[in-house]
Amino acid sequence: MSVQRDLFEAEARKPQPNWGIAIDNLNALSMPEMLAVLTGLQPATRKEVADQSQRILGIQRGWRGSSDRIEAALRAVDGQYRVAPGEFFRTNAALTGPLPPDQQTTLRLHLVKRRTDRYRMSEAGKRFLASDPIEGFRPNLYNDNAGHCTIGIGTLVHHGPCNGTDPSETDEFKSGVTLQRALQLVAGRLAWFEGQFNQAVKVELAQHQTDALLSFVYNTGGLHELLPPLNDGLIEQLPALIRITRVASNPRVASNPVVLMRRRNEADLFENANYQAHY
Predict the structure, then answer these.
(1) Domain of 100?
(2) What is the pTM (predicted TM-score) of this model?
């Protein structure tokens, strides 16, 4: 990571950034590093970067080429441009045409990767999921908050309480599982949820936001009431909605303090990238 990237990210995070400093450091980045740093920004911040780049570089200094280069990179990471590279280059020919061939190639590779990438829970997200205030790790069979037989890190064994006779309660589960085995079980269940998540979500999310929402989905089975505002781009409303969304027909579950605590931690992760779940 370059010094210029560090300086840009530090400035952009300030409540009142000095956009002259921020844009100068962004403009100094190579195309691969610029794409990487812009991908990590919130959509609202990316819009501000676009406006400030046009104002500072394009209008005040007359550096139209530099302003267009940043605009091309911004559009490449924007959620609406999850399209084939050819279509992107046709639509944005005025921006991409003047770019050197190596930068055009970088943009094409980025767009190809974006079309095939899928939202997945990170390793930090899995550790968050396995922490005690969220799912926790239990080596033996137990009944979850809804009264269903569960093991490991919130892996559903079958609906209804553990009874010792259901075929799903295998000898392995009756003997208890290791943490490594519990993580394997989580991976299998997560893969299904991640597939559903990727089909449903139409907006761009940072990794910590993805992890928070996948934790929510892992617990509730879907995004439910969160999906419409999420796909409408109302990202700033999500933390408050996560805190109040129970998604449980059983009143005992809906008012369970453990569920309420989990929602608070998921909202904190979504809003503040805080992976330290707390009681």
Answers:
(1) 3-116
(2) 0.57
